[in-house]
Specification:
Elements: H1 4-19, H2 28-37, H3 40-51, H4 61-85
Helix pairs in contact: 1-2, 1-3, 3-4
Length: 87
């Protein structure tokens, strides 16, 4: 029986593979870290954003991993800043 965490990981992995066919996904530890630090919706939105990037043909496993991490951090910082502006 799969846990909720297993399902979230597999969903993220399948979404990554669909978005970047032919590119090896980052190590499972990356996905686990992303799912612990950010919600699954944020990860899904980030993968979809990168999927539409004009330089997608140049992407590698490392570049997608770094880009996903950077976009997730940026989104978290923006959300925190909005909370400070709007009490």
């Amino acid at each position: 029986m799969q846990t909720q965490e297993d399902k979230l990981y597999l969903n993220a992995l399948f979404e990554y593979q669909a978005a970047f066919p032919g590119i090896q996904p980052p190590a499972p530890t990356w996905f686990v870290k992303w799912l612990i630090e950010y919600d699954s919706k944020a990860l899904s939105d980030t993968i979809q954003t990168l999927q539409r990037h004009p330089k997608k043909p140049l992407f590698t496993t490392e570049s997608t991993g770094r880009a996903i991490s950077a976009l997730l951090r940026d989104g978290a910082i923006r959300a925190a800043a909005q909370k400070l502006v709007r009490p």
